[in-house]
Amino acid sequence: MLARGCDTVRAAGQTRRVQLGFDTRLTLLAAGLIFLWALILGVWKYRRMVASPNGQAHPYVDIAHRSALLYSFATLLLAVFVELSAWATAVNLVAAAVVVAFFVIAIGSYVSHGLREDTDNQFRHPTPALHAGMIALIVGEIGGFAVLLAGFVVEQLF
Known about the structure:
The structure is a single chain. The chain is mainly α. The protein has one domain. The protein is built from 4 helices and 2 strands, in the order ββαααα. The longest helix has 30 residues. It is flat.
């Protein structure tokens, strides 16, 4: 792993320094915060299931919970690629931040639909704004990760 920051790890009775870059540490923080959000959303989902006559939460409450769980682990994966990238800290940070921002926006959108209980499928009556948002999401998530993947390839394979 690249030596850029500094943390201590204890393994098998030994202490060693693990060096993490600032960009990696921020990405890991984002993963942790999204995971915490997922856990809180799980409580919301549980409360809605208990209160529901059919034992199910609103579909978007369920989607918000599940997507937050998945996005937290996806953000961990981003952190690995950030740490192993050849690119400058600023490039890695921007690339990861774009992807994470779209993860957070998506979860927030699902939470909003779950609170309002306005739909069980946001694409049933899509608006031009929804389509524009989806195009931005596609470009941002794929583009941001492609930057990190390219940085990994350059640093680790060449």
